[in-house]
Write a structure and sequence with these properties.
The complex is a heterodimer. By secondary structure, chain A is an all-alpha fold. In chain A, about 80% of the residues lie in helices and about 0% in strands. In chain A, helix 1 runs antiparallel to helix 2. Chain B is built from nine helices and no strands. The longest helix of chain B is centred in the N-terminal third of the chain and has 23 residues. Classes of the chains: A mainly alpha, B mainly alpha.
């Protein structure tokens, strides 16, 4: 689809807006509807649009498959680590109050951090699943071609 | 619309109908003032699911394999289950009543205390990330597990011949009919090899 001028122009205009909206619902989630799950999905949708228009290989240059594995695991680890941090600072698991002195600030810090972890995991897992499916076709074609040559 | 999704043989059309269905659900949630749920339904149901369905359709055939005849047993089971469910809805409390079980359990506690506990205006975020934090962590792990499962299934390089498996070529759109013949030839070849 990369040779279609209209798609390229519209995508170039839309992708930054989609990603910005993703970040907005990530970090504004405590004030308005939103949160890690939705933000991750919207952010990944922007990336998938880029992959559809400019090709998967170019999209993988932005964020490599290896980085996706690492970030997907890092997101849930961040979530779990905040819980453990609460235990270490004298509370219960995933209890945010001990993290900071002011209870409200502590809760907001905890909520924003765990939501960020969720967002990172969701975004990278969605990208990863899309990459797997999109790559399958070319793998099949390569294998079939190999078989025909034999 | 659900009937249309079941009846239609063109899987591309079915995918699109599903997307529209999700978008309508999202609109319904917005009408019910459930902004978080509506956002999720629009992003996940109408957005990502549709993209993944299309990605799968690029690998599979576009049209459903026609199955002849009707399964009367299945129809009876579905009808009885449906009738029982509809009968059960008669016992549900009336929609939106203040003394419903959903409104009198932990809901009022969250509504009254979440702002003084958290200082977070969005109650849904407060419940999800703080009161019910371990649930949400479980959900995040479910997502990671789904990613790992897809990775485990699809990262293996496809092989042309595997013992006991008849390989199927990914069809090309314009050659649907020829593909079927090719498959039969492949199968015949497989049997001959055995």
């Amino acid at each position: 689809m990369s040779d279609n001028g209209i798609l390229r122009v519209v995508a170039r205009f839309l992708i930054p807006l989609i990603m910005l909206f993703g970040l907005y619902i990530q970090f504004h989630g405590e004030y308005s509807p939103g949160g890690g799950f939705q933000a991750g999905v919207v952010f990944a949708a922007g990336w998938i649009l880029f992959a559809l228009i400019y090709g998967l290989e170019n999209a993988l240059k932005v964020i490599s498959q290896r980085a996706m594995y690492v970030l997907a695991a890092a997101g849930v680890l961040l979530y779990a680590a905040v819980g453990v941090l609460g235990v270490l600072m004298g509370g219960r698991y995933l209890d945010f109050y001990p993290l900071l002195d002011s209870p409200h600030a502590a809760q907001q810090f905890g909520i924003i951090t765990v939501e960020f972890g969720v967002g990172v995991t969701v975004a990278t897992v969605v990208m990863l699943i899309y990459t797997m499916f999109a790559r399958r076709k070319s793998e099949w074609e390569a294998v079939l071609k190999e078989g025909d040559d034999r | 619309m659900a009937v249309a999704i079941v009846r239609v043989r063109d899987l591309f059309a079915a995918g699109m109908l599903f997307a529209i269905y999700s978008l309508l659900s999202a609109a319904l949630f917005t009408v019910l003032d459930a902004g978080d749920v509506a956002l999720t339904e629009a992003a996940v149901g109408a957005g990502i699911s549709t993209i993944l369905v299309l990605a799968v359709l690029a690998l599979a055939r576009r049209f459903e394999h026609p199955t002849g005849g009707h399964n009367l047993l299945a129809l009876t089971v579905v009808f009885i289950t449906g009738a029982v469910l509809i009968y059960a809805t008669l016992d549900l409390p009336e929609f939106g009543q203040p003394d419903n079980p959903a409104q009198v359990h932990v809901g009022p506690h969250y509504i009254e205390n979440s702002y003084s506990d958290m200082g977070v205006p969005n109650m849904v975020a407060a419940v999800l990330a703080s009161y019910r934090s371990i649930d949400t962590m479980g959900e995040a792990f479910v997502i990671l597990t789904a990613g790992i499962a897809v990775f485990a299934l699809l990262s293996v390089r496809p092989r042309r011949r595997q013992a006991g498996i008849v390989p199927r070529r990914p069809p090309r759109r314009d050659e649907e009919d020829e593909e079927l013949e090719v498959d039969e030839e492949d199968m015949a070849g497989e049997k001959a090899n055995e």
